[in-house]
Write a structure and sequence with these properties.
261 residues, mainly alpha
Length: 261
């Protein structure tokens, strides 16, 4: 059982480690320069002068602590945007890539169902999610202790744990695109376009009368500022993201069941 998931997970492991090391190095550099930034620049005054929509778009809420800067800069760009785009991009190749390279015919000639192929390929996407979260989370917690601006361990664990439903949702969007499209590149570009568009919709309408439009954006349900700055955890948002991921997975199964290979 789960031979496809194991095979795909092994293929993704090396790339996941490279991404984790790169993000961890970026996080370490970010932490190293943050004390100097806090001491020399009055970011709180600067934030007051920025338009609310701009501050919302980039998660700029509190720059008077390491936790606030990480939430507003590193996690907003590195996690919500870049990791979300990466997961959508990776998932975009899961089905369409094998179809385009004529590997899917060979795979389905074995005693496996289409639904198991889709499900196991989706499960393999947990590898980059887990590896990157564990490595980067550890670096951030230790780094914060080193610069004497500690972040509570539970908050660090929470921000990375609650990012898992968000990243799974981004991956599910990519999976649906991959199941529906014939070309890998098209599926990857479409899924990344959807993630970026949804992110911008949520960011730009939050402080307006059209804030209700943001309900379709996964980023609405994962707020790093709430976790690291205010110490609050949106468990309902995490459930909503998991439900959305499940619905997108079911849609992917149905689409792939009905398409010609």
């Amino acid at each position: 059982m789960l031979e496809i998931a194991r095979y795909e997970a092994e293929r993704r492991l090396s790339g996941s480690v490279i991404i984790a090391v790169g993000l961890a190095a970026f996080a370490a550099l970010f932490i190293a320069i943050t004390p100097e930034i806090i001491g020399e620049v009055d970011y709180e005054a600067m934030l007051e002068d920025l338009p609310p929509a701009f501050s919302s778009a980039f998660g700029l809420e509190s720059f008077d602590s390491l936790a606030g800067i990480l939430a507003g800069e590193f996690y907003t760009l590195g996690w919500i945007l870049l990791m979300g785009l990466y997961m959508a991009y990776s998932a975009g190749s899961t089905i369409a890539g094998d179809v385009e390279r004529d590997r899917m015919d060979m795979l389905l000639s074995n005693p496996v169902s289409r639904s198991s192929v889709v499900l196991e390929k989706y499960l393999s996407l947990l590898v980059p999610i887990v590896v990157v979260n564990v490595v980067v989370g550890g670096v951030i917690y230790v780094g914060a202790q080193v610069v004497d601006d500690p972040i509570p361990l539970f908050d660090v664990v929470a921000v990375h744990a609650l990012s898992v439903p968000y990243l799974l949702c981004c991956a599910a969007i990519g999976l649906l695109a991959s199941a529906a499209m014939e070309r890998e590149g098209s599926a990857q570009r479409a899924s990344m376009g959807v993630i970026f568009s949804l992110y911008m919709i949520e960011a730009l309408v939050t402080e307006t009368d059209f804030g209700w439009l943001g309900v379709v954006s996964p980023s609405r349900y994962f707020d790093t500022n709430d976790i690291l700055v205010h110490g609050t955890y949106d468990l309902v948002g995490a459930v909503i993201l998991l439900e959305a991921s499940a619905l997108l997975l079911v849609a992917s199964l149905l689409v792939f069941q009905r398409r010609d290979i």
